[in-house]
Amino acid sequence: MADSKDITIKIDDRDVTVPPGTLVIEAARRMGIEVPSFCYFPGLSLQAACRMCLVEVEKAPKLQTACTLVAMPGMVVRTNTEQVHQARKAMLEFLLANHPLDCPVCDKGGECELQDMVFTYGADKSRFAEEKRHQPEQKWSEAVYYDAPRCILCFRCVRVCDEGMDVKALGVGQRGSQSVIIPNGEDHLECEECGMCIDICPVGALTSGTYRYKTRPWEMTYVSTVCTHCSNGCKTTLSVRNNEILRANNRDLSGFNKDFLCVKGRFGFDFTRHPERLKLPLVRRGAKLEPSSWEDAIAEVSRRLAEIHKASGADSIGFIGSNRTTNEENYLLGRIARASIGTNNIDHHRTADYPTLIAALGEKAASASATMTQLYEADAVLLIGDDPTEQNPLVAWQIRSAIRHRSSRLYVINAKSIKLRRQTKEFVEVPLGGESTAVRWLASGEAQLDAAVYEKLSALKAALVKESNVVIVFGAELTGAALRDLVKFGASLPGQTRYIALGDYANSRGASDLGLVPQLLPGYAPVSDAKAREKFGKLWGAKLPDKSGLDARGMLAAAAQGKLRALYVVGANPVKTFGVDVKDKLGKLDLLVVQDLFLTETAKLADIVLPAASAYEKNGTMTNTAGEVQLVRKGGDVMGTRSDFDILRILSHQLAQQGLGQAIRLRTPEAAFDEIRQTVAGYNISQAALLLGEAERTSPISTANGSAKFDVPVGSIFSAHDTLFTSGSLGRYCTTILSLPEAAIEVEAEARP
Ligand code: SF4
Ligand code: SF4
Ligand code: SF4
Ligand code: FES
Q1: Is the entire prediction scored with pTM above 0.90?
Q2: Ligand 2 proximity of 360 Cβ (cutoff 6 Å)
Q3: How close is the Cα of 692 to the center of ligand 3, in Å?
């Protein structure tokens, strides 16, 4: 709707009304008129370097650059005159003066902005007779290569690295026609290796180590899905040829991350083809794990589970689920544990206290959860704990973008001097583990602080209480009572305060929402609530147990005591996650079953290992840490594996034959999601929107279950402290990422005790 301050200008004889400050290039785009541009890129500073966007403006003595020209009332612009056409053609002639025109072998051929422009303006002849200057291609890192002759000096790469990433690894060397882009390490890059510079380059000057010279754009299919690494849920487009993923980017800008992907999202997909990928089920015969058929392996799992169930009861069996399996798979795993086996012994590695946040917010849980877009739109951000640059790169990008584009203010409480500190208005450095004390003081004034922290925290509080539209983002440092303090403090701020709890992996939030917690059924319905048990029991064809279950550490302790006899692990590696003595505890089990991609430390101890498909090889949905659900779509395929969904579904049929529960009749993830939409509080979201590629926010209030009040013991919540270059077990098989020198430093640091 037009605002009274909006202004009207004429472009190519048509009126367009735009807000004050709109650039002519953007005003034209609103009308569907594409003014050609190379150096202009929305969200980055203006450069006016390429002169491709020249347009005629009435009463102006010469052509103007539409990318820097602000629309003024009554302005009359022409974008398609003979003069404009000639100017663009001449600019292209200059750009091609040294360009090698090696389109037939260039990675960018077929999706190159320069190639498209030359086709449009027909700059097919050059008046330059001089020999073209050649420079050899440079390898700046395993991920980034630079081919100077192809570079058109638009400086998009320099600006995205400086302004967008706050890394400043790229600059311009030499002068005039000799100018080239140079990396910060003289002949190599020392940076975050995000590949944003490659992605934003309009030509084939910057190319990707994983993709270069492998294929052509028209030989691939494009699959829109969600990154499988951290919990931020960046949308990614996988470029796939012959079932193999060759590239990941988000060039259609369709997700909330727009063009952003970090190094893991962009280069961390080659684990799918890692030679150590499991492709056959393995069954232990004596000391050795031996290959088996799927039929035999699953039959053995169900037979042995049934034997243990009969001899020692349902609670002698436990389940540890995953932070990376889909919502549908988590739903099925919960059903098998609670309905087929009849135990509440089910958990996962919890990396954020979503249940306490949702319980503390109560009926406001839906409206008070910030989406990733709302984080960008916040007037102020309070960040407590975590290091988003390393652990939640999109969150860091959103915060930096909000500060750059919208002058948002950032306030930070942290025990470490994190990189985002550079952008803060107030930074309070607390002692190690001191975040919860600081929050208690903010909420109630009742906490002992040392003088320096007191002074800083007082200044932060004084500034925050003047803010409104604040988004509070926090890491695993805040759980339980500290989180309730935080919500109390948030409620005291003027305007709407929203929250994002930062978990660690792609579907941490979905694991929690779908009930991979001993005390909670899907949708945060407490197992102690008879109505909720009845609802899911009816749906799943069983009387659900009301006895409280064991969490992951409880299950491991029970295994050590011989009380837990069987453990079923899906996409998790408790040996690595829960500590050094776990190996001994698992050794006491009568049956350990592991579904995973690789022979992890835990899988090595298993009696039966089932090779699972990764998130890039299946369909379903995932929920990011901000509670936004997105579709996961199958990109590649690895022969021999099965999705966790199929494995669990088949298992339920086998268990039913053993007299345990009913077979799951949901044949596809889509059917399971339909059931989730109808039964899980907060998940009745628009399927049409998901199919259109949008992210839909869940509204996880437990009023649908009769009450917003539930009290879940906080239990064991801890961050994996993954970095930009590590990603749990999966990260250890991302060959390209591991080859980066920056990764080697971080992986080494991670391995240190
Ligand atoms: S890879 Fe990322 S951090 Fe490195 S130079 Fe390119 S934009 Fe900058
Ligand atoms: S390398 Fe690409 S993005 Fe960077 S200045 Fe050259 S053409 Fe532009
Ligand atoms: S920020 Fe997280 S979700 Fe986004 S690309 Fe990086 S690892 Fe993937
Ligand atoms: S796009 Fe306007 S000068 Fe480059």
Answers
A1: yes
A2: no
A3: 21
